Amino acid sequence: MSAAAPPRIDLRAAQRADVPLILGFVRELADYERLADAVVADAALLETALFGPRPDAEVVIAEVDGEAAGFALFFHNFSTFLGRRGLYLEDLYVRPAHRGLGVGRCLMVHLAALAVERGCGRFEWSVLDWNAPAIGFYRAIGAIGQDGWTVQRLDGEALRALAADARITP
Fold this sequence. Notes:
The chain is of the alpha+beta class. Helices cover 33% and strands 23% of the residues. The chain has five helices and five strands. It has a five-stranded mixed sheet with strand order 1-2-3-4-5.
């Protein structure tokens, strides 16, 4: 008896036609993260953000034996300390049926190589503190948690209230 061949994992840059698939991945990720109610993005918003005249982010789609298995959505940030841009991973998601096959690792290897190729000084992301499987995966690939840093966020009414204080100086 011979062992079954390992599944074929292919990565590709997302195309405009993938917007419904990407939105589906976003919703699946939100369900997993217990944040389904937070998703307000729709196909039109994602299409503009990813494929408009000035794209805000990029997406890589992972396929296992030709079936969509996961995605990574990322964009560039900038480090004043390094004087170079970095690559920030906003979302990494692998469908449950495809976990444990190496899909997440393939996506992370691809993004790390892309960061090096583009001259980035860092590759960063955030993870929910309760997500032990993800944290374990990140530690296994060599990532180090950044103790002493806490993510801060303004959104919704707090963002609008602060923006309302803007003063235009001639």
